[in-house]
Design a protein that fits this description.
Order of helices and strands: EHHEHHEHHEEEH
Number of strands: 6
Distance between the termini: 48 Å
Number of domains: 1
Strand content: 15-25%
Largest sheet: 4 strands, antiparallel
Oligomer: single chain
Structural class: alpha+beta
CATH topology: Alpha-Beta Plaits
Bound molecules: thymidine-5'-diphosphate
Shape: globular
């Protein structure tokens, strides 16, 4: 058994096309469990950090706008983020998700079924799926706090935070 964790994002095009249900149904074929989930309004800082490895690509700025949902207007500037866990999770999930380029993705995969290439040439491929164990750890730590995941998957430490500004229910 090779238990792995990975980050899945339903990107803003997936949210806007109301594909979340279809995507989660497809992903459930993997028999993985969800150990963290939330809706996120993506900041520019988070978008840039997530796609840091592509910072030199000509499509980087467009990609950062895309993951923030900027192209779809204010109602769709969100992604759904999930941490999945299971045996051989990354390669199993990437098979279900399909190739990065929706035109090259298998037609039964999520990206093959629902993705498109924009007229500007950007791949709107509906979901993000971590590509390997070290990227998965980097991404999960970027998107989730330890208390938002119901299992202890990575080492943590306790710190005392003084005078932290917090919004609570009024
Ligand atoms: P990448 O991390 O290479 O692929 P994946 O998402 O499959 O791990 O690329 C990140 C995103 O950048 C990808 O989901 C869509 C976009 N992208 C393009 O628009 N054009 C490209 O040529 C590539 C490689 C990626």
């Amino acid at each position: 058994m090779k238990i792995e964790e990975l980050l899945i994002l339903v990107k803003p095009d997936g949210v806007k096309k109301f594909l979340t249900g279809n995507i989660l149904t497809k992903l459930s074929e993997s028999n993985m469990i969800i150990i963290g989930s939330k809706v996120v309004k993506v900041s520019e800082k988070l978008a840039q950090a997530h796609y840091y490895h592509l910072r030199d690509k000509p499509f980087f700025n467009e990609l950062v706008d895309y993951i923030q949902g900027k192209v779809y207007g204010d109602s769709w500037n969100m992604v759904l983020a999930f941490v999945y866990q299971g045996d051989d999770a990354i390669s199993k999930m990437r098979r279900i998700v399909g190739a990065t380029n929706p035109e090259e993705a298998e037609s039964v995969s999520i990206r093959g079924s629902y993705g498109r290439i924009t007229t500007k040439g950007l791949y709107e491929n509906v979901v993000h799926c971590s590509s390997n164990v070290s990227e998965a750890m980097r991404e999960i730590k970027l998107w989730f706090k330890p208390e938002e995941i119901i299992k202890n998957i990575y080492a943590t430490k306790t710190i005392i935070v003084d005078k932290e500004k917090k919004i609570i229910w009024a």
